[in-house]
Amino acid sequence: MPKAIVIGGTAGIGQAIIKGLIEAGYSVHFTYNSNADSAEAIRLQYGDSCTCTQLNLSSLDAVSAFLATVDSANAPDVLVNSAGMAADSLSLGDVRARLEQATTINYLAPVTIACHIGKLMTERRTGSIVNITSIASKRPKAGNAIYGSAKAALERFTATLALEMARFKVRTLCVSPGFVDTPMFQKFSGGNARDIIREIPTREILTADQVAETVLLFVKGHIKSTGTTLVLGNGELVF
């Protein structure tokens, strides 16, 4: 049975990706930050096809400890970096604490994980790495400088990683969604979801399942690409 690791799987996009991968025949190991009850419910739902580990992505020491458990014997065929943290706040004043946390979670941790697992994939001459980013990397908005910049950096890293691994038959992709109906969107919208949706050309937002379907198309080889960023949305980038 092929194996997959999903970083960040207890809500929204990550949970939809876990479901899609298991339905496609993968065994999935996923990580979660703090929602142990949700993680256990997901694990029980899928039985032997699903395992999980608590992982605090804001600690690179914790990331390294997790990666020490992943070696050539249990290397995954698929890695999906789905976890992220919004950090909307004006870029004024003392931003160091927010900068360190958001950059670690949204950039340094997924890069560290992709580098470790990518090396194992090159040794096996096969593998797919998907990094979930955001159109915030391309659409500046007051308050999202740190988050958007971290996602933009992750897209740039993913493109270079593709060049380094292509000859080993390991492919990479960034999936960059616009607004997605997830708990993060509800928190971000702060009760103004209806107003935000009105500003989208199609007057609708993506579902987590739609993002997961795109990931599965790439993993299955139906999207023939590597090192690229695939933008999903309903016209959010139309100015």
Explain the overall architecture.
Belongs to the short-chain dehydrogenases/reductases (SDR) family. One of its GO terms (biological process) is monocarboxylic acid metabolic process. This is Dehydrogenases with different specificities (Related to short-chain alcohol dehydrogenases). It comes from Solimicrobium silvestre. The protein has helices spanning 12-23, 36-46, 60-67, 96-124, 145-165, 183-189, 193-198, 208-219; strands at residues 3-7, 27-32, 50-54, 78-81, 127-132, 170-177, 228-232. It is of the alpha/beta class. The chain has one domain (3-232): NAD(P)-binding Rossmann-like Domain (Rossmann fold). It has a seven-stranded parallel β-sheet, with helices on both faces. Helix 4 links the parallel strand 4 (78-81) and strand 5 (127-132). Helix 1 packs across helix 8 (208-219). The longest helix has 29 residues, at 96-124. The radius of gyration is 17 Å and the shape is globular.
Work out the number of β strands: 7
**CATH class placement:** Alpha Beta
CATH architecture: 3-Layer(aba) Sandwich
Tell me the CATH topology: Rossmann fold
Q: Strand arrangement, largest sheet? A: 3-2-1-4-5-6-7
Protein name: Dehydrogenases with different specificities (Related to short-chain alcohol dehydrogenases)
Pfam family, one: adh_short
Organism: Solimicrobium silvestre
Family: Belongs to the short-chain dehydrogenases/reductases (SDR) family.
